[in-house]
């Protein structure tokens, strides 16, 4: 596990609450992984999925719910906020990333 740092991403209470709802519905607790990969229409894209922790992950935790960020993705997510939105167009986890200089309309692809 990576040590905490002031520039680490932050997870909102709403995102942790949604993770708790998912865990209850599944009957098990899995962590939410936020990763950055090459690709997408803007150069990088977020990979958001349920996963198990790896040795080099930063683990952000509250009330037994965990969000994971791997060491390679961490610099791209410095000072980002991970949230959950439930809007007319759908419900999803979102990343508010101050490092992104541009993003696509769907919000999953960005450039730095």
Task: Give the oligomeric state of the chains in this entry, treating copies of one chain as homo and distinct chains as hetero.
Answer: single chain
Question: Helix count?
Answer: 1
Radius of gyration: 14 Å
CATH topology name, in short, is Hypothetical Protein Aq_1857, Chain: A
Tell me the number of strands. 9
GO molecular function: 2 iron, 2 sulfur cluster binding; 4 iron, 4 sulfur cluster binding; iron ion binding
InterPro entries: ATAP, ATAP_core_dom, FeS_cluster_insertion_CS, HesB-like_dom_sf
Pfam families: Fe-S_biosyn
Protein name: Iron-sulfur cluster assembly accessory protein
Structure description:
With 112 residues, the protein is mainly beta. It has one domain (10-105): Hypothetical Protein Aq_1857, Chain: A. It has one helix and nine strands. The chain has one helix at 13-26; strands at 10-11, 31-38, 44-51, 58-62, 65-69, 81-87, 90-96, 102-103, 109-111. The chain has a six-stranded mixed beta sheet, covered by helices on one side. The mean pLDDT is 85. This is Iron-sulfur cluster assembly accessory protein. It comes from Neotabrizicola shimadae. It holds the Pfam family Fe-S_biosyn.
């Amino acid at each position: 596990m990576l040590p905490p740092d002031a520039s680490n991403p932050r997870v909102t209470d709403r995102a942790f609450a949604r993770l708790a709802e998912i865990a209850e519905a599944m009957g098990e607790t899995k962590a939410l992984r936020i990763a950055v990969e090459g690709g997408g229409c803007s150069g990088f894209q977020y990979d958001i999925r349920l996963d198990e922790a790896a040795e080099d992950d930063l683990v952000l935790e509250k009330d037994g719910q965990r969000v994971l960020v791997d060491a390679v993705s961490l610099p791209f997510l410095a000072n980002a906020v991970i949230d959950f939105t439930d809007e007319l167009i759908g419900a999803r986890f979102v990343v508010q990333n101050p490092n992104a200089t541009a993003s696509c309309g769907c919000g999953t692809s960005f450039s730095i």
